[in-house]
Amino acid sequence: MPKRTRRHHSSEKAALLKRHHLEKVPVSDLCDEQKFLPSLFYTWQRQLFEHAAAAFERPKASPSAYRSPARGGRGSRGGSSSR
């Protein structure tokens, strides 16, 4: 009978990586608990560090944030005033 491949949810991967890096749980212990190979853990770790810079990037503003003041976008004061 073929072996089923288990799919791990992203939150589960993050929790396991966090346990290793913050709680100092050895990779071998995590792998024994969850029944997966260390190579899978190290693949997740590589993916985490390859995409880590994205966590520190500023979100791009949506085009609606730059609408003209007449339409109620950024810069609108919500009323008419003469200066």
Automatic annotation (TrEMBL):
Compositionally biased residues, Gly residues: 72-83
MF terms in GO: sequence-specific DNA binding
Protein name: Transposase
Domain of life of the native organism: Bacteria
Location of the region described as Disordered in the Swiss-Prot/TrEMBL record: 56-83
